Amino acid sequence: MANDTKKPATARLTYKLATPIDFKGERIEEIDYRRPKGRDIKAAFKARGGGGDMYTALMVNLCEQPEGLFDEIDGGDYIALIEICDDFLSPPKVASKA
User: CA dist 1 to 4, 8, 9, 22, 48, Å?
Assistant: First the structure.
C-alpha cells in the first residue's frame, strides 16, 4: 500500500547558506545533503551516547563535510541544517481519508 507524502523522496538536496563562510581556504556557499541510511542514524546515536552532538555527527555523515565546518557556520544556518535532519527523520505524513 503506497503512502501519500508531503515530503519529496529525493536522494539529495542542497542548502544555500544565508551567511557563506570561508573554511580552510575555500568559500562555502551551499551544503549538499543526502538522505540518511540506518547506519547514519546508528552512528549519530553512538555519538550522543558518548557525549557527542548527535546532530553534528549526523550532518558530518550526510553532508560529507568535516565536523569543524559546522563549528564555523552561522547559528541560523546551523539551525536550518538541523531542521533538514529533523525533516529527513520524521515519518511521512499519510493523507487522511474523509
Answer: 10, 18, 16, 47, 35
